Amino acid sequence: GPGRSAGADIIRMGNNIRKLNELVVGNNVESEKPSDNIQVLTMDMTHWISNPFDSAIKVVDFVYGNSISSLEKRKLAIKYQESFNEKVADNSQHITTGKSYSREDKAALVEMLKGDEALGPILDEVEKLVNETMAK
Q1: Residue-level pLDDT at 76
Q2: What would the mean pLDDT of 125-134 be, rounded to a whole number?
Q3: Nearest Cα to 130, choosing from 20, 14, 51, 15?
Q4: How many C-alpha atoms does 23 have within 13 Å on its Cβ side?
């Protein structure tokens, strides 16, 4: 939303990878069995965008389970769908939507960011973490 920096997604991604690895491996080094108490909801982004009400119902049902009524779940899903529809009607788009950059421009941007005094070390660590995870 407004005021929220999309650049923080990189940091969240690294943190999410670490947290998911902890869940899969568990904190007990002797046992490499994933915890039976972990539940994860995965949803395709195409479905999320093309079916905002149904997607919201799935998320609300996953998060709240039986702790709230079906009517409350529907109200939350309707509220999300209305918000989604407003953004679509306003042509609200992510800053990068519809932009096309050449491979060379993308490479130059990556090098500039990696060379940044503050961001460079963070990006290096996230890249290592992603590469290690993908190699497993």
Answers
A1: 93
A2: 84
A3: 14
A4: 11
Whole-angstrom distance between the N-terminal and C-terminal Cα of the chain?
34
Q: How do residues 39-83 score in pLDDT, each as one tens digit?
A: 778 888 888 888 999 999 999 998 889 999 999 999 999 999 998
Smallest CA-to-CA distance from 14 within 107, 111, 119 is with 119
Closest C-alpha to 76, from 92, 56, 99: 56
Question: Over the range 17-45, which residues count as b (16 or more CB within 10 Å of their CB) and which as e?
Answer: beeeeeeeeeeeeeeeeeeeeeeeeeeee
Of 12, 13, 25, 6, whose CA–CA distance to 130 is shortest? 13
Report how far residue 63's alpha carbon sits from residue 59's, in angstroms, rounded to the nearest whole number.
Answer: 6
Give the pTM: 0.51
Tokens of 41: 């909801």
* pLDDT above 70: residue 135: yes
In 1-136, which residue ranges form alpha helices assigned H by DSSP?
8-25, 45-50, 52-64, 70-89, 103-115, 119-135
